[in-house]
Design goal:
single chain; about 475 residues; mainly alpha; 21 helices; elongated
Amino acid sequence: MRQSRLNRLSRPDAGPLILLLILAVSALLRIRDLDRTSLWYDEAVSWSQSSGTFGDLLSSVAADNYPPLHNIILWLIMPVFGDSESALRFPSALLGVLAVWLLFRAGTILNGRSTGLLAAALLAVSPFHIWYSTEARMYALLAACGLAFLLCVLKVLEKPSPLWLTGLAAAGTLFLYSHIYALFGFAAVGLVCAAFAIGDLFRTGSLRGSRALNACLAMAVSAFAFLPWLIVLADRARSVAQTDFWIAFPDTAFLNALAFGLAGSLTLFWILLALAAAGVLFCLFGSAGTSGQSRILKRLIAVCCAYTFGPATLAYLYSVLVQPILFDRYLIAAWPGLLLLAAAGAQKLAPKYGPVTVFAATLALTYPELEFTLFQKIRPEWREIVADYKQHMSPGDRLTLYKGFAAPALAYYLREPANFDAVENIDELRRMKPSDGDWLLVVHCSRRETDEAVAAFGEDEEATVSQRFGWGASGLKLMHWKTAR
């Protein structure tokens, strides 16, 4: 009986049911409890930038460090669904599920249905991908648009058609408008396709019918569509380069933390990397079929490698040579590429039991991180600190926020932006004279800076009302001033 059941599951018609189960699990893990945590600073910035007119949205995003696509999505949905935490995060959750499906499609093209199902299953339970699919930021969008771009490139190289060429131009444009890191993946894939086109020219003496050239032309349309915002980002890059950036230098400890953040387990990261290497080697040197089929497979593998490793390599080089920009969540588009290559490796090494073994090992190694992500991991507790303030405040009280970068988060939960002042530095605090009923909320500061802020605000008696989780020694520290009598 058991063998009969296994035989039924191994039949091709079980594939759609398995995919449906994977998508259902993916949706459950991402959509449940979207409002479990408060919005954090960056999510509140997305809300603030998307709450005004469309012109306000474009101007505010242009003054920041990323393209506007995610903000445009929020701008479109908020009038219909509101701006609750769940409503703001729901598009990211849906995009996270879409990414799982797109990865299945890409894996099927690369190495068959089993590879697609394993890659999709690995992404469905990835704690890293789940976390950023529950955040009102552009990271799930970056992953989904990146995989749509990768899928279209693979289809154009495998069997081009006007539909897939149009899809590639559109997906490439959306990818570029999702996040600045898309430039790395887009450029890496574009260079590989250009190399293929040159190879076609040398091999046949003509570019006529070159699939790689068709891919390059479609990507050129995407690049041209992105040109206006590229000019904006170039201007912003000059401004950022003149100031210190918050990302640390990518030393060995940083890279280990980054690998753990992506995989949820350092052991799993190295297993996946080894499987990916095996998959690449098998596809490059062990592929059967005609020379034309072998050439196409090798090109598909090369594109996947460029998409996967290009962003991390380019960002690392920029970080070492110019300024640190390498960060785990910015690699959310590249991360599924590693899962795809690892799934291909598992399928090549052990077609019958490899995929099941790898998935079981992934669950075992990442279960602690998965459980932590789903039930314990939190963001700065703005919801709680504002509730504390509202519980203890009196009419006419004045609230001062230090530092001002967190003003959107406080405004989101307080919903009365005129009732607080945001200051950026100690000198501004010194110019303020606290009196009875004045409040100070210190955010994201070291212990020394917190003490300096309190001393600068006023020497009179103060009492800490509450201290909630944030980042830094202060977290979110709320203090109430009572002048000595």
